[in-house]
Design brief:
Elements (H helix, E strand, L loop, with lengths): L1 H9 L3 E2 L6 E2 L12 H10 L3 H13 L2 E3 H7 L4 H13 L3 E4 L6 E4 L2 H9 L3 H18 L8 H9 L4 H17 L3 H17 L6 H23 L8 H19 L26
Helix pairs in contact: 1-2, 2-6, 3-6, 4-7, 7-8, 8-9, 9-10, 10-11, 11-12
């Protein structure tokens, strides 16, 4: 409803101040898209070329972003940049959000970002994703670890497969260290899929090896943590025993750090085979 009202205001079908609008056009003469996505797309199309291009670039950067990141990604004089930001806020596409150490901007609705992103050409998207990732590396060079997930996201949608695999691996490692094993596995699997799509290269085997073994390692850690005190006759205890055996046998064939453990800095201790038994 909010977007419908905004559309009618922009088309001069409603006039007056917010909360005191009056209808100027007969309802039968109005042409309103049937979906929210359609309404948003129509609103974006009514922007000036300058505003629309700017909004599309912001949609690739993300849902929320600081002013400094915009300046690094969007090649625009600062005065023009803030003028367009002010205009997009007035038209209720963006909000300004106080934050420390600098002001941030956020799309009013996640759907607005999605619709704007969908209007960006594929090749342009890839270029903008890579520029955003490079800007993040430059801005946060002293705290890159806090931005591994963002960097992985942007490089994964660019043409830079090498960087995508690197940051997906780092993001996966960080997730595992914080016991987010499912998230870590998704990162490793996505990185492996990107390598597969890139075709055969001299470095592919070296890069792919840790990606293929890491999901099993995260599952191993997860089972050990869940089943730490389980007896061997329960399903969880049986699973733990099986993983312990697999780990022990695998370490004989494929010693650390060549095997799964240690490739991304993941560390686990060999498990104690002497588990409790039911009396």
């Amino acid at each position: 409803m909010e977007e419908v009202v905004q559309t009618l205001v922009e088309e001069d079908a409603l006039i007056g101040d917010r909360g005191h609008y009056r209808l100027e056009t007969a309802p039968a003469a109005l042409h309103i898209p049937q979906t929210v996505q359609g309404i948003l797309a129509a609103r974006i199309d009514r922007l000036s070329v300058e505003e629309k291009t700017f909004l599309q670039q912001l949609a690739v950067i993300g849902r929320q972003f600081p002013a400094s990141l915009i300046k690094h990604v969007v090649p625009q004089p600062e005065d023009d940049l803030y003028r367009i930001l002010t205009s997009l806020q007035a038209k209720e596409f963006l909000y300004e959000q106080p934050a420390f150490p600098e002001v941030e901007y956020i799309f009013k609705h996640a759907l607005t970002q999605d619709v704007a992103y969908g209007t960006v050409l594929q090749e342009q998207r890839k270029s903008l994703h890579e520029r955003t990732a490079q800007a993040l590396e430059s801005l946060y060079s002293d705290s890159l670890e806090d931005h591994y997930s963002e960097l992985a996201h942007h490089y994964s949608h660019s043409e830079n497969t090498r960087k995508a695999v690197e940051y997906l691996g780092l993001a996966g490692q960080k997730a595992v260290q914080h016991l987010a094993h499912e998230e870590g596995s998704r990162c490793f699997i996505t990185a492996s899929e990107l390598l597969s799509e890139s075709g055969e290269t001299p470095n592919r085997a070296r890069l792919e090896l840790p990606l293929q073994t890491a999901p099993g390692e995260t599952l191993y850690v997860h089972v050990i943590l869940l089943c730490k005190d389980s007896v061997t006759t329960t399903p969880c205890g049986i699973a733990r025993t099986g993983f312990c055996m697999a780990y022990t046998l695998g370490s004989r064939i494929w010693p650390v750090p060549v095997g799964a453990c240690g490739i991304w800095g993941i560390r686990t201790k060999p498990c104690n085979q002497r588990t409790k038994r039911r009396p």
